[in-house]
Design goal:
This protein has about 180 residues and is α+β, with helices and mostly antiparallel strands. The protein contains 6 helices and 5 strands, in the order αβββαααβααβ. A hairpin with a 4-residue loop joins β2 and β3. It binds pyridoxal-5'-phosphate (PLP).
């Protein structure tokens, strides 16, 4: 990658660590990413596992193309009935327990956790939250509040109050659940 392209990237885009990989992506297919010089990398990260069926899987490309032909963004917040969302909700309901038959569809992991925290607070009118040490739940304020990693949180305090952290596999700590 040319120095000026690297500089443009480093100047005009935010990075989240001091030493970004700087792979200048031209294309990706299956397990490989190619950079603009033609160098091929085996992608062991897979988009942080998001592309765990490989880059540009033909079925994913086909589904995206079919959706492009119909519509893109029309409305969020569960207002309109949309084929893809309804199909996903039906699919989830078919594999989840009967009492978990209703999905609220969002764009990311952290939004899902924000929604879960808000839904639990609204439904129960309770405020205490118990989460696990060494957990990661996302980078927005609510998700960060329940993330069990001080290093990730320390610059953003105060976060949500009333959160207790327990250890994975320590069943006695479940006694922290209050009435
Ligand atoms: C367990 C877990 N929860 C939440 C998230 C946040 O997801 P997103 O990056 O889509 O907001 C991640 C992302 O790595 C995760 O691994």
């Amino acid at each position: 990658m040319s120095d000026s392209r690297i500089n443009t990237f480093l100047t005009l885009q935010g990075q989240t660590n001091q030493s970004p990989y700087l792979i200048d992506v031209e294309r990706a297919e299956g397990i490989y990413i190619w950079d603009k010089t033609g160098k091929r990398y085996m992608d062991m990260i897979a988009g942080v596992a998001v592309n765990n069926i490989g880059h540009r899987h033909p079925k994913v490309i086909e589904a995206i193309q079919a959706q492009l032909e119909k519509h893109l963004h029309v409305m969020v917040y569960g207002e309109y009935i949309q084929d893809a969302q309804l199909a996903l909700a039906e699919n989830l309901a078919s594999i989840l327990p009967e009492n978990l038959n209703c999905s609220y569809i969002v764009n990311s992991g952290t939004e899902a956790n924000e929604a879960a925290i808000k839904l639990a607070k609204r439904y129960t009118a309770r405020q205490e939250i118990i989460s696990c040490k060494n957990s990661y739940h996302g980078s927005t304020h609510g998700s960060l509040s329940v993330t069990g990693n001080e290093e990730k949180k320390s610059s953003f305090k105060p976060l949500l109050p009333n959160i207790q952290f327990i250890e994975f596999n320590n069943i006695e700590l479940l006694d922290l659940i209050t009435k």
